[in-house]
Each structure stands twice: as C-alpha cells, then as structure tokens.
Request: fold
Amino acid sequence: MFATCGKPRLSEVTLSHLNILGQAIHAGIQPLVFDGGFVSLVEQRESEVNGDAKRKSGQRPEARTRQGQRAQGRRRSPSEAKSFRSPAVEETHGAGFRLLAQHYEALSFEEKDGLWVAVKAKPLGPRGPQAHFLIGVPNDQTIWPRAWAFQTIGPQATTFPLKHTNFPDASICAFTLQSEAWLPADGLLPLMDHYSLWAVKSWHRQIIGWWPGPQIGVCALYRRNEFDAREWCGCESGISYGFCHFSLDRRVPEELARREFTQFFGTDYGNRQTPPSIVEAARTRWKKLPPLSSIMSLA
Ligand SMILES: [Zn+2]
Reply:
C-alpha cells in the first residue's frame, strides 16, 4: 500500500499563518493567491509589499483576484516562451501554460491528446512546506482537467490525504462544476490557484484538525465519515456540521447510508485511490508519465 501520511511540520510563524488563514476562510473570506501559490489575506500582503508599486487586480471579481507579478518574481526563461510542437496543444494551452509558468514553477509534458503539467507550489509561503501537483489537461476542453497533489515526490512520494478528492481516482476536488468557480476558458493559472488554496485547507485539517470554509457533502455516509463537527455542514446551510446534520446523519442505518452514497457517486465509499501510474509518475519525479488517455476517457 502507498503511504498517504507524512503531514508537514511547520515553524511557529507558518503555523500561525495557517491558523489565521483557517479562521478567515472559515468566516467566508476568500484569501488571495500570489506567485508560487502563496495563499494570504490582502492585509498581510500589503504590509509585506509596503513601498512596492500598487498592483492591479484581476478581472474576475468572483474569483480570487491575482495581483501583478512580483518584482522579485521568477522571470520567464526563453525555453518557457517557446511554442508547443503540436498545433492543437499550442492553440489550446500555449498561452495559458506560459502565463502559469510566469507565476509558478511549472513543467509541461506534451502529448497528442493534451498536456501534463507538473507544478511545485509553496502555499504557506517561502518558509512553508512544498506541494507538488500533477495536472492532466486534455485538448478537448469539454473534458475537465484532473489533478493529483503530493506532499513529497521522489522514491518516498506521498499523496495528500483523502478528503475533497474524487471517487474513484482520488483526484483533487477543489470546486464543483455547478459553482463555476473555475471554467476552462479561465485557463491554467486560476486553476492552479484553486489547487493552492485546496492544499492550504488540507494542511489545516492535517495539522489543526478540521477543514476550513464552505464544503459540499451530499449524503450521510460521506459527511459522517469525513466531516468534523467544527466544519461547515455539507448541505450548504451555512451552519457548522455539529449543529446541523451531525446527529441526523448518525441515525441513518449503515446499509441505507451506503446505498444512498452509491446512488450519488456511482461507486462505493471505499473505492478511492490514486491510480498506480500517477503514483509512479511522482516517484520518478515526472519521468514516467502515463498517457493522458489511460487516466481520463478521451473521445
Ligand atoms: Zn446540514
């Protein structure tokens, strides 16, 4: 079996940052995401960049706004600026990937059906732990990207724990399609920002004990297995789980709860695992990548 443990150890400063973020997210405040995936509240950021020129906000007010590239940020190297070989990949992902690579450490691996993108992020800032993401983005934009997150890569690769990961392939579930928090036309950079925020929430749960902020959990079995009483209820009531569906969920007989789960997700609750080929990709530091078509059904 493959290890999913190994939660990062944080310095006092980073732990305090995580605590503040968790409280804010829990109160419904959407933090900003900066270069390298650094998740922070505006106030903290503004005091940090005190003296820097004012930055302009992004165009999508409903998404987290992205500030302009930091002066000390990574400049695009000539190799990152080059086009992809395949016209289909270049047309679909060229500009989006190059924008991503200006703000994150990102590698691309081109294939005929699309792109694998490997990203290294520091969601809790330069002194915080790393998070590694592997994102599969097909050329066919009617098929949504899929991504997996790792706390370490290389021979000892470990995934992030299972929570807000999809059934059955354990890919990241950072938002729902219905919420329109991200749409394919938004491109890779905002997508990656959502994943950075997801990593912060996952670390908050691993280290502090609960998942901050609004979350969806459509049935009793899922909620009672994965939701802490302090968390938002999954029914979108806006009330904490402990005061909402907690006791009701515990009264649903196991057999009924399981059947309900299968109806919602089309699979059993226990059926969730990162595909071995994705784990292998992380173990080899992205040297051995599976074909996109083996991971998602492409037309
Ligand atoms: Zn509820």
